[in-house]
Structures
1.
Amino acid sequence: MFGASVIVYLRIVPWEKIPEYIDLGTIFLLIEMMIIVNTARGSALFEFIAIKTAKLANGNPMRMLLLFSLVTGVTSAFLDNVTTVLLLTPMLLYIASVMRITPLPFLIAEIFSPNIGGAATLIGDPPNIMIGSAAGLTFNEFIINPGPIMVVNLAVVMGMPVLIYRKDLHVSPDEQAGIEKTFANLNEREAIRDMSLFKKSVAVIVLVIGMFFVHDLLRLEPALVALIGASILLFWSRQPPEEIFEKIEWPALFFGGLFVVVGALVETGTIAAVAGFVVNNVHSEGEAMMIIAWFAAIASAIVDNIPLTATLIQDMGISMDTYPLWWALSLGACLGGNGTAIGASANVVVLGIAARSNLSISFLEFLKVGMLVLFVTVGTGTALLCLNFAVL
């Protein structure tokens, strides 16, 4: 915000041109999805999902890890990643304590799954929202293109913690029987704090997801679909709006200033120069896809993927406006966050919750697994992407 204010003060970006650079569709879509999730969390919807998942595992730690990875990945494809891990991570710590095993494998899986699941849809991760808005891509186009790739990546990554931490996930038959009995006594319905709100939240979430699938046919912008869902849930549930708004992650939304900073790069010709250099040194579409995906992935492991995506969108919008390259950018920007402990918001949140529970995961310890996951998922993704568009 400070950078944006300086840029406007110096007239690098004139005040009247600010609306051209700030993508309100991206910002409002994030706000409205946060309203839906924060309203639904009052019913204990996520606790219900966690207990139900734990009972399905029947006391088997490996099955528990796989199921929670799947649930987190699928949930993060449609709801906010940070809220998802905020609600599910404490449950994982509780489950690990009941099993009397280290929660480390569960926490590692809980970090990677939402980042991969979020990359599968238009609304799953902020970079995808930005890319979809800039390129005019629909919800169904995301389902068709990165969706199948992320299903493969999620399957691969679900198995990696099982292989890496297989010794930590082993329990004796007697211990497993005791764990199974403990979870059998848990009643997921008793966790629900407000059954009326629970039913209304599920109904509205299903409605919103259904509308996302047909929003292009209805000629509705994704932000408008989310606004309709958020409005219906607030009216229907009668939850105090001020309490819901207090829970919105407002700091995450102030990246609007970054749009202005990127606008300065456009106004000064910097973006055009960088894009021109890349275009002049790329000899095929496949090579361009590889460069964009891997550059975005490595850079996103180091810096926040939102400003990075905003900058690269301008590059591509000016000189490289070809359909497959948008998917390469989405792939790299979303999956690169798995590389380091600071690569994505979900990583920081899960590690923070772990630290408060006296479980410290060092930067280097995370880096060893994170970079392996980054290279495996981005490598798999770029190969499938090139195969899909026949540019190998």
2.
Amino acid sequence: MRKRVIGIGFVSVLFLCTTAWVCSAQVIGRIEYLEGTVEIVRDGSPLRPIDIGSAVEHLDQIKTRANSTVCVSFLPSSGLSGQVDLEENTTAVLRSDSGGMEKVHELQLFTGALGVKVKRLASNKSSFRVRTPTAVLGVRGTEFTVISFNGAALVACKTGEVRCDPWSSSAASNGQAAPGDSALPGRLVEVLESQSVKTAEFPQGEFSSVWKDLRTRWKTFQVELITANPVSFLNSFVPVWERSASQIEADAQRLRANSVLEKWLLGAKKGGPKGNRSSWITERNAVMKDLLAIKPHLTVGMMSWYRLNELIPHLSSADMNKKLSNGQTVQAFVNRFTKTETEVSSAFTLFYAAEKQYMLRNDGLSPFLEF
């Protein structure tokens, strides 16, 4: 009898720990300021209304349109203090992972620019990093800015230090990866799509105005690279995208048809997960099989999708009549690509919603370490 009581107590403690994570770890910050059109997708659905004071949760997808900006400040319960400013035409996901004894907060910057001013609270085991399609930026209590475009990232540090490593270095298991470098006051770091890392001197002057000028000239140069030979750029991404798109849509349909996930998402609208740890074990397996199926195609497709979204607005009317290597005109491809916008965006948001619900039932742990 005594062993049984101890066993029940142990299970109760585990359940309470999970419940505590469910209640406390979802809200990471709040909107401190916003201007223009800002969109947040949570649990697969647009969040409305959005205003100053609105909560920002784990795996929220945040998007700013032209002439728009949003500032997210961290809550003390996150273990961090400070804020993240997303500039116009920026798309990012904010996540929080429980990694052993440390809580790792990560902002996944898919495209656009942002400013970060953050530090870890004393006696708290939390960390923060920014991940772009090409770089992983380790933050060490600092203030910095980063812009991501055309498969490259440019980082400038106002105070402190930001460790800038190529994405390949975090993914490599054999230790053979391109060396990174640190952005420091007075020194820029650029991480290229090739995974090479370059440094340059940050010019003298007031930080914000100098950075604005540098960022504008850097992006102009990237756009010129694209427009110099747009068909060549398109030929690099169109085949990958077309292979991924059909697979993503099929995988997303299977994920939508998952009855367990459907129940989870309905429960999310009513305030959170129900059930017990025993049922969650079975339910997690039922959802994970479909998450595993979509993940590889989503990772490849997402990168191509964002790159094409960056490229297409810079095509000229003359470019539209040119032919791609597969024989179709640029205009025909753009028309087809535009038609996939809703379906593909829905697949991305569904995946994040499913991963979040899985983590709610798995002590905050996700099997997906990369994006």
3.
Amino acid sequence: MTTWQTVSVADYRKLRDARLLAHHAAQWLGRAARAYASPKPHDGHTSLGWDAEFRGLTTHALSDGSRLGLRIPDLTLCILGSNDALPLDGRAETEVNGWLASKLAARGLDAAKLQTPLPYEMPHNVIALGARYSIEELGPELSALALWTANASGLLSDVRDGLLKRHLKAPAVRCWPHHFDMDSLIQLGGNRAVGSGFCPGDEFCDEPYFYISIYPEPYIPSLPLLPPVGHWHSYKFIAALAPAHKIVASLDQRRDIMGFFDISINAALEALR
């Protein structure tokens, strides 16, 4: 069982700002993986892992064997295993691109591939319009984001272990640069799937939250009540959500979130049986 570090009340507006900066910064990992990592089905080669010691997200191995990482608390882009590191604070995307392209070219990689446009739209942020990264007032929030993500990586891995013991095919927990969420998607055959995951916030819930997604969507009245830490979300999609403001109010955060997962996963499997 992995360790859970207690999370506390945060300024969710500033946490959103930190999340959007980190989301945009993580696209450099996604671009590099898309350009240089060995292709995997469903864009799996672009997915990112969490390195607890590094306190950041990391790519799969690129074609030269190197891996790129983004340390979250100080938003620093690194080529792991080397001294190559670039703090993003005060830099525009053009500067980041120039630095990374030169480092990859020095490793024998075709830097032009880094310029391939992303195949998806990103949330609006001034960084995309040429503004510089600025983390001066977001240090505590970036550290909080790293803490949430570290907790999520460990807890979701424990949830996955439980699913594997039930002989369900739950893949390794990974972060997806498009939505910036972390999940393990269980394929049940046909079009049926259950996703156990964590999102640092989005247009549907502007704070960190854990979730269980269900495909196809179930009949709402058949779903059971969830523990106080969670609720059934039904706007535009149906999922079990455990948002940050309910989690921080818990006297035993890990126990209550695991209880949330136990009930919502069983409900999802029953709905799709």
